[in-house]
Structure formats: structure tokens, C-alpha cells
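Review form for a predicted model. The reviewer records the input and the model, then writes brief findings.
Reviewer: anonymous (R2)
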Amino acid sequence: MATTRVMISLPQEFLAEIDRVAEEEGCSRSEFLREAARFYIQARQTQHRPIDDPCVQRAVEVMDRIARRSPGTGEDSAEFIRRRRLSG
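Model under review:
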């Protein structure tokens, strides 16, 4: 695999912490940063919002049906929960 050098600026204290952890891990600064970038990219690719989960979607649908059948005080708890999930 071809490699390309990049230059980044880091605060000195942060670089010192990177070097300390890289040494503990027994790897070079470059390998540590490559692995950190891989880990971050993988975490972003597998990250999803709870509302995207089919089980959560079904639960919200059930709550909506219950809210329509039993309006209670007029407060829409399903909508409140949905807003909280989407904002998180």
C-alpha cells in the first residue's frame, strides 16, 4: 500500500500524551495515529441512532397507537419520547 506523509499541528501536551500511550502500546507515533484514525472511522461507520433500529421503530409505533386509543391528559408522551430520542 502506498503511503503519503501528512503534516498536522497538535498542542504539545496532546502530542506528549500520544507519545506516552504509543510507547506503552509498543508502537511508533505514526502507527498509533493510523490505528486511532482506523478506530474512529470504524466507530463512525457502525454508529447509528436509536430511532434507526427496527425494534425501536416498532416500539414507537405501538406507543403511538396506545396514545391514540387512550389520550389521557392530552399530553403526548410518545411524541415527547420521540423528540428526546431524536435530539440525543
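Findings: The mean pLDDT is 84.
Further findings: The helical segments are 12-25, 29-46, 54-69, 77-87.
Recommendation: see findings above.
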